[in-house]
């Protein structure tokens, strides 16, 4: 499983820094991009291309010559709509238009659990459940999934949209006991997303093999993703935290506190 040139957007971010190391085996050249400054390229296997995703011409130049795209770049938390519009909504559109123009056939899109954040934690859903975005950020990821479906239906560009739960070194709170995705499992899921044939537009929940989960990945079984890690090893540590009030959005909604952000004075 190796391609020639793989583009990683958002490469200066939390997950980008991790994947910069872990995706190396899958491409002869990793093209790393971000609007923020990147550590200099090392060796012949890396190249850095600064780019603002809201700049159409810059994104077209960025994508030219790549075989696949792992699209992590954008605003990753709830923010005023105008910021989300530039980085996420225009950004994802530019990525797909550039993919079409330059013949890229596979995208891995970092979607988010916040496209379904208004489901209750007592509900169990699969990839076909109607989306219930929990803010402007979730709306932008929902739009990204629609763009992915459209570019498959219209142009045959395949995407795996990974609705990432919470991908950090450890679950930071009780909610993340359900949503946690280890870096090892994230890497494995991206590898499957890049190399499984005939994925069309697949939506998959990015979670580890946690004990209590809300999401059913049977609709993405063809990816052959089997999570190796579990949040359970962190349970004792997490449960030392004070209990969460039952009225706290972190205890009610799958999207947790994102459901209660804003307004931003607009
Ligand atoms: P992050 O915020 O650390 O990284 C995002 C990167 O995108 C940053 O380096 C930022 O500079 C870059 N960026 C922002 N606006 C840009 C623009 N206009 N042009 C170019 N680059 C721009 O976020 P993180 O945690 O690394 O997440 C990566 C991706 O995965 C994001 O798309 C996020 O929404 C998604 N995700 C992450 C989750 C997690 O648990 N870490 C959960 C769900 C989704
Ligand atoms: C996300 O989409 C965010 O990018 C990340 O920072 C976490 O907040 C995560 O969701 C989560 O829901 O825990």
Describe what you observe in this structure.
The protein is α/β, with parallel strands linked by helices. It has one domain: NAD(P)-binding Rossmann-like Domain (Rossmann fold, 3-Layer(aba) Sandwich), CATH 3.40.50.720. It contains eight helices and nine strands. Strands 3-2-1-4-5-7-8 form a seven-stranded parallel beta sheet, sandwiched between helices. Helix 2 crosses helix 3. The radius of gyration is 18 Å and the shape is globular. The model has no long low-confidence stretch (mean pLDDT 98). The structure holds 1,4-dihydronicotinamide adenine dinucleotide and D-galactaro-1,5-lactone.
Give the N-terminus to C-terminus distance in angstroms.
Answer: 48 Å
Architecture in CATH? 3-Layer(aba) Sandwich
Judged by helices, strands and strand pairing, the structural class is: alpha/beta
Largest sheet: spatial strand order? 3-2-1-4-5-7-8
Radius of gyration, whole Å: 18 Å
- CATH class equals Alpha Beta
Helix count equals 8
Shape: globular
Mean pLDDT over the residues: 98
Question: Using DSSP, what is the number of strands?
Answer: 9
Q: What is the name of the CATH topology? A: Rossmann fold
Poorly predicted tracts of residues? none
What share of the residues lie within helices?
25-40%
Note the run of SSEs as H and E.
EHEEHEHEEHEHHEEHH
Largest sheet: 7 strands, parallel
Kindly give the count of domains.
Answer: 1
Distinct compounds present = 1,4-dihydronicotinamide adenine dinucleotide, D-galactaro-1,5-lactone
How much of the sequence lies in strands comes to 15-25%
| CATH superfamily heading | NAD(P)-binding Rossmann-like Domain
